[in-house]
TrEMBL record:
InterPro entries attached to this UniProt entry: Cadherin-like_dom, Cadherin-like_sf, Cadherin_C, Cadherin_CS, Cadherin_N, Protocadherin/Cadherin-CA
An annotated GO BP: homophilic cell adhesion via plasma membrane adhesion molecules
Presence of keyword Signal: yes
Signal peptide extent: 1-16
Name listed for the protein in its UniProt record: PCDB8 protein
Organism: Hypocryptadius cinnamomeus
Amino acid sequence: RVVALILVLCVSGMRAETARYPVPEEAERGSFVANIAKVLGLTGEELLARQARVVPEGEKQYLQLNRHTGDLVVREQMDREGLCGQNEPCLVRFQVLLESPLQSFRAEVRLTDINDHAPVFLNKEIVLKISESTVPGTRFLLESAHDPDVGNNSLQHYSISSNEYFHVYTRRRNDGGRYAELVLDRALDRERQAEVAFIITAVDGGTPPRSGTALIRVVVLDINDNSPVFTRSLYKVSIMENSSQDTIVVVVSASDLDSGTNGEIVYSIVQNSEENFETFKINPKTGQIRLKKVLDYEETKRYEIDVQALDGGGLSTHCKVEVQVKDVNDNAPEVIITSLTSTLSEAAPPDTVVALFNVRDRDSGDNGRTTCELMGEQPFRITLLAADAYALVTSETLDREQVEEYNVTVRARDEGSPALSASKTLLVRLLDVNDNAPTFTQAIYTMVMTENEPAGRSLGRLSATDPDAGENARVRYSLVPPATGTLAAASFVSVDSESGIVRSLRPLDYEKVRALEVTVRAADGGSPPLSAQAVLHITVRDENDNAPVLLHPAPESSAAAELVPRWAPSGYLVAKVVAVDADAGQNAWLSYELAKATEPGLFRVGLHSGEVRTARAVTERDAARQRLIVLVRDRGRPPRSATATLAVALVDDFSDAFHQLGHDPASGQQPQVADEEMLTTYLIASLVCVSSLFLLSVLVLTANTLCKARVPSELPPPSPSCYADGDFASDGVGVGSTGTLSPAYRYEMCLTSGSGRSEFQFLRPILP
C-alpha cells in the first residue's frame, strides 16, 4: 500500500522532494498510510525528541503521526468527491516538520476513488419527438447521466431495453465524459405506432458495477422533411469569471427551410449536467445564452453546453458551445495557521519556531503567485520551508521587561493587477524568566531613631522594585549578617520581609550607641533568586535624659571652701564651677546662675563660663563667711539641673583663713576634736619650720656681713617668690577639650618676704 518515498531533508529554508502515498477514499480511521520513521531513516525516539508532527496544507487535519512508532495513519475519513469533485488526481497535501534542527519535507496522499456512487439521470423520463419520415441511421442526442466517481468507477456505457426501432451508441466527449446517442434502426410509422417507450441504463465500471435508469418516450410526429441547421456546429467563447448575472455568453443561430410551424425554431439546452442547468439559460426564440449565476474560475474552468434547435414539425438539430472561463484576481491570498505557540519564553534563542503557516491563493498564474512579509519592526522573521509553506521564527533575543507581548501581523500579497493581500495577526505572549535582580530606590537609607524609644516602633520603609513578573518580581527583605567582631545591628532593628518596614527591637541609649549601619538585602522569588544590597544608616536622636554632673566643686563634698581677701575689687575671680552633661546638642548646653547667696549683691556667676566673681568691691561690713548655691541647668525639654554649694571666707590674713575655714556659721556645726588636734600639729610643724628658717637667715646674714665691706643700711625691697607653674599642677582640675567645659584655669599664690604678718595674697588667675 505504501509507495516508496525518496525524501531529502534539508536545513530550514531548503525545499524537499514531494512524496505521494495512495489511500482509498473513505478509508477507516486508523488505517495505515506509511511509516515516516523508516522513510526518514529515524527511530521513534528521534521522532519524539525532535517533536515530529504533521502539518496539513488546509485547515482540516485528516492524518495523524504516531511519534513512538513513526506510523502515519488516517485520522478522519476522506471523501474524494467532496474534496476534489471531478478533478484527478485528488491530492491531500501535508508537511512533516522536525525541530532541533528545523527540517521539513512535503508529502501528499492521493485519494484513490472507490465506486461509491451510481450514475443518475437528471430527468427520470426523457421525451423525444421524432418524425415518421426520419431515415434509419439518424442519431439523436440523449440526456447524459451524472456519476461523481472518476476513472473506471465513472460512467462507462449506456444500454437500452430491447425494442425494434432503436439502439444506443456511447460516445466520449473531449473532457472524458460519456454521452449517449440514440440511433434509429428502422423507419417509424406513426399510423402503426405513435409512441415507442423503452428503458435506458447508464452503467459505470466499478466492481461491482453500479447503474442508473430513465424512461425514454419517443413520440412519432407527422412528416417534416427539413430539419433546422445551426450556422456552426461548435461555438467557442471565453468569458471573465467576474461577469455579472444575466450576462450574454453567446448567441446560437439555426435556420429551417420549412415554412409555417415547421420552420419555427425553438432553442433549448440539453441538460447533460446539473452544473450546466444551474449556470446557463437560453432564450428559446432568440438563442441567447445567458448566465444564471456568477462564474467562479476556481470551481469550474470550462463548460461544455449542448444546444438543441427544434422546429415546429418536431425536427431538431444540435450544436456544442464551449465556454472557457478566464481567471480574474478576485481571490485574496489566505494565511492558514497550522501551528502556533502563543506563549514563548523570553529566554528563547534566535530561530525559535513560533508558528507554522501556509499561504494559499485560489487564483492561477500571476494572480495565484504570492509573497509573504511581516508588518512593522519586530524581533521575528519569516523562513520559507517549502512552496507556500512558511515558519515564523525569532530573529533576536527577547526581553519581556521591554515588551510583554507582540501582535505579529503576517501579510500575504499576490502578483495580480491590482494586487490583493490578506493579513493574519498572531498574539505572542512572553513568559517571564528571572533575569533581573531587585533594585533599591536608594543606595543608602537614613533613618532616625529617638533615644529610649520603645521597641516595635516603625523607623521607615525600604523599597526595592523588580521588573520581572509573578514570583520572579516578589521582593523579600532581610538583614545581611555582619562580619564577626562588629556591632550586631540585628539585635537593635528588624526588617519586615514582605513590606520592608524597619522596626526597633529595643530602646537605645544615645550615650552608648549614637549610630548604626547595617546592610539590607532584597531578594526576589525566582529560581535561582537574584538579590541586591543597600546600606541602612540609623542615627540615634538624643533625648535630655542626663542631668548636668559637677566636676568642681566635687559633688560628694558638702561645700567647697574659697578664700577672698577683704581688699578684693569688683570682678575678682572667686571660683569656677565646672560641670558636664552626657547629652548632646542643646541638651548639653549648660548655663550657670546664682540660685542663693548670703549676700546676693556681692557675687555674680558667668552665664556660660560658670565663673564666680565679686559683683562689687568687698567691704568691712560684709559677713566674713558667705554661702553660695550655684544652679547649673541644661537647655533640654524639659531642662535638667544640678546645684553646687560654695563656702566663701572673707579673710584679712593667713591666720584668719584657718580660723574662718574651721568655723562655718552657716553650717551650725563646731569643728570636731580630731580636726582641731590635726590643726595644732600643723601649727607646731609650721612654727618649727619658721624658726629653722629664721635661724638659717640669721646665719646667712652674719656671714654676708663678714664677707662684705659694707652692710646695707636697709633691706632690699620685697621680692615676691611665686611658685612655678608645675608646683600646683597636680592639685588643679584638668578639663579636656571635649564636652562642654571651658579651658582649664590655674591660680598663682605668692608670699611676700617682707610681710610683717604671714598672710596669703590672692592674685589674678593666670590664663593659659
